Amino acid sequence: MHVLVVNAGSSSLKLSVIGDGQETIAGLELGNPAEPRVVDAMLAFVAQHPGVSAAGHRIVHGGPHLSGAVVVDDRVRAQMDAAATIAPLHDPPALRMLDALRATSLTHVACFDTGFHAAMPDAARTYAIPAEWRERFGVRRYGFHGLSCAWSLRRASELLARSPEDLRLLVAHLGAGASVTAISSGHSVDTSMGFTPLEGLVMATRSGSVDPGALLWLQTVGGIGAVEMSNALEHDSGTLGLAGTADMRALLEQAAGGDTGAILARDVYVHRAAAVIAGLAASLDRIDAVVFTGGVGEHAPEIRAAICERLGILGVVPPDRELSPETDGPVSGLGARIAVLVIRAREDLQIDHEVRRLLAA
After folding, report:
1. Domain containing residue 225: CATH number
2. What is the C-alpha separation between 177 and 206, in angstroms, rounded?
3. Cβ pair 33, 20 in contact under 8 A
4. Would you state the pLDDT for residue 118?
5. Has 113 been annotated as catalytic?
6. Catalytic choice (20, 73, 113, 236)
7. Which tens digits make up the pLDDT trace of 150-191?
8. Positive/negative CA dihedral, 229, 234, 238, 240
9. Which domain holds residue 273?
C-alpha cells in the first residue's frame, strides 16, 4: 500500500507518496491551497500514482473531540469544522484539500497535531480561568507539533537504543512555529503551546506568550481591535517584529554584522527558549535527552549551542560536534550525562505510520 501524505499550510501544500518501507516514492510542493490551480495540480498528482489507496492529512487542531488518527466520515468531518474555529489560520487550508480529495476513491485518515498531547495531566492542561470559560467554551491547553514530537520520540528511541516508554525527553521544535514538549513514558506531560499555536516561544512571525494585561490595555487604551490584534500577534511579531526578518539565517548574519536589532532578537529568542525548556523540566523526574528539531533546531547550531549554554543548571552541556546534513544523531560529547540530539522533523513519516497502524487494526 502506498500512502499519500497531505500537509496543507496557509501558504503552501506539500504532498508525498510513502511506500511500505517508509521510503518517499514521490513528492510535490505547491502554492496557496486556496488557489483552484493548486487543487487541480493535487488531483493530477494523485492520478499519476494509482498505487495510492489511502491519504493521511495533517490537521493542526482536533478540538476537544478528535485526538488520535481517525478515518474521516461525515460525522468526523463535521467535528473538524467546529475545531477549525479555534485554528482559523491552520485548519481551513487542510480541510479544503481534504474535501477536494474525498471525491476520489481513497480512504482518508486525519492525523492531529494536538493528538500527542491529549493525555496531558489536568494540572498541565488547565488554565486558571472562570469555570464557564473552561466548561462552556472548552478553553484549555491543547498543545501542537504533536506529530513532530511523536516522530522525535521514535527516532530518539532508536538513536539511544532504549524503549520509548523508558525515555524522558525535552523536545524543542524550532521552526517558523516553535514549541517545547516534555515527554515521559511515551506521552506528552507538558508543552509550551496552548489553546492555539500562539502561546509559548518567540517564533518567526508569532509573538509567543505576552502578558494578557498588556493586550487588554492595547485594546482598551490603544483602541486596537480584535482583527488588528490577531494580525499583529500572528504575522507581525516574533523575530520579524524585533528585527525585521522572519528568516533565522538572515537574522544570524545580521547579528554577526553587529546589527543591534538582530542581536536583541537573537538573544530574546534564545532566552525564551532556554527558559521554557528549563521550566518544562519540572514536569519530568529526570532528563535523558534534549532534542532539537524543526528548521531552526536542525540547521542553526549557533542557536542550539546558545540555548544549551543556558541549561547548565539542568546538567546540559553545549554540543561539541555537528552532524552532516540530513543526518539524525547526538551532537553532545560521548560522555555527556544528558544527550543533545538533532532529529529531522518528519511529520510525513509519522503520518504514514499512523495511517498504516489505524487501517491495519
Report:
1. 3.30.420.40
2. 8
3. no
4. 95
5. yes
6. 113
7. 999 999 999 999 999 999 999 999 999 999 999 999 999 999
8. negative
9. 161-347
